[in-house]
Structures are given as structure tokens and as C-alpha cells.
Amino acid sequence: MVNDHHTYEKLTTITSEKNVMVNEHLKNHTYTRLGGMADFFVTPETYEQVKQIVKLSIKDDIPFTLLGNGSNLIVKDGGIRGIVLNLKQLTSIETTGTTIVAQSGARIIDVSREALLKRLTGLEFACGIPGSVGGALFMNAGAYGGEIKDVLESAIVVDRNGDLYTLSAHDLDLEYRSSNIPEKGYIVLEATFSMEAGNYEEIKAVMDDLTFKRESKQPLEYPSCGSVFKRPPGYFAGKLIQDSGLQGKEIGGAQVSLKHAGFIVNKDGASAEEYIGLIHFVQDTVKDKFGVNLEREVKIIGED
């Protein structure tokens, strides 16, 4: 375990004591309510602090992990060694004309609401996506026919060397539920969205309709990672799981949702091991029954 006083002193010098938590339970920072402890959980307040923390991790050879708002993520029971960086303090959202600039810690839902208030159309699809702006770029988040690449103009990132860059949307290789952000090791600090002027009532009507669809179909009453699997070509993951007779299947405290088979919920104090075990069971069953490989949309990190 990386947990020495020298590292703590260096981190608190870069940011401050209130922004550095030691042995922090990561289940407090994930939508699934799963995950062991982080050696250091750090919440910087400026881009410069992010750069310095990355450079410290390189210089002192400290493991480094970026954690968004934990909506599309499972952290294993053994937790995460070294520095876990969280950008929840970088939440500014500013609009100029038809352009919205949002910091990575802001919720993409809040950016869609800002667009509505400023009568801008293009982000209606994001009104029910629980992730942060950074996470939305990381996986090119999408819903109901829209996706981030439709509206993203550019992003400010820090690379794995601690250097700052401004990149165009094209530079991020945004495709269905993917980007080159994980491969390149980028930390997204800020995104610029290019919108179009629209009618407030029309934008609100679309958002209200999508919110109703989400709330009526998704099991929001239990902790979950959201949609577990990518849509397989020619199929719907939820339908395949349902037709496999898996709705209601439980391993420990984890359950295939009775409301939507594409979701796995933490129904009763599940461990990450149980939750991940149920994901594997679903994949194996669907493969055996239909010959279809269900690819995970959710990311799994940490130690067993």
C-alpha cells in the first residue's frame, strides 16, 4: 500500500489538506456503492494542481488513477493503490452565444439543463445521463440517438506527462461508446460544445419525454452502474438477457434488474466480486443460448 507521510505532505503542498483524503472508501464515490479504499483520494481545484499531481506521480513512481463521478464504473473490493484523482471541484459551466464551455467535473445533465435555459439545442439526449463531462467524453456517452461527438467542438486535456493540450473533437477518435482518451492517458479538464439556437418549449418537451422514458424503464431505486453492456450489432442486450430467463437472477446482493434486464443493481449490500460475478454469468449464459458476445460498457478497475 502506498501510504507514506512524504506523499501526503507533497500532495497537500500542491493542493491543501481538505483536498487530500487518506484511506478513503471508494464505495462513497461510485453509483454502484461498491469498492475498497483509495490510498490517497485527491480533489484538486485548478488545472495547474492537476498537472502537478500527475508530475508528482511520475517523479515518485506512485500509481495514478483518474476517477470520474463513478456512474459507469465498478471498483473492485481491494480498492486502488496510490493516488486516485477526482475532479469534482471543477464544475464551471459557461455559455457564450451558441457555445457552452464546461469543466470536466460538471455533470453532463447540468450542461444539458444550461443549454435548455439558454435556448440551445443539441444536448437534449444527455438530460438523463448521470456521468460527468469528463466521463461523457471518455466513453462518447450517448442515449436516444444522440452522442457527445455530435456536439463536441474541442477539449482541454492533460496528458500522462502532465502537459496541457487543447484538442479538437476529431483528435479524440470518438466512436460508439469509445474514444482514444483511455489509450492516450488523457485527463479531460474542459469541454467546448457547439450548439444551435432553438425554441425553449420544444427543447423542454424533448427533455421531458426522455426523462419520462428513463424514469419509467430504468431501475433508479437501486444503486447500479447504469447500462452494463454495449448494444450488440443486430440485437438489444436487455432483450437477450430477458430471453435467457435471467431477470431477477441474483448472486449475493447483486441482481439482474426486474425492471430492465440490461441493468444489474446492488439490491442488498453486494460486494464488487458478487456484482462482477453476475456480469460474467450473464455474458456466459447469453453466449451459450444465443451465440452472442455481450461486451461490457461499464469499466472495472482496482484490486481484488
Automatic annotation (TrEMBL):
Required cofactor(s): FAD
Pfam families given in the database record: FAD_binding_4, MurB_C
Major subcellular site: cytoplasm
Active site: R177, S227 (proton donor), E297
Domain of life per record: Bacteria
Reported function: Cell wall formation.
Protein name: UDP-N-acetylenolpyruvoylglucosamine reductase
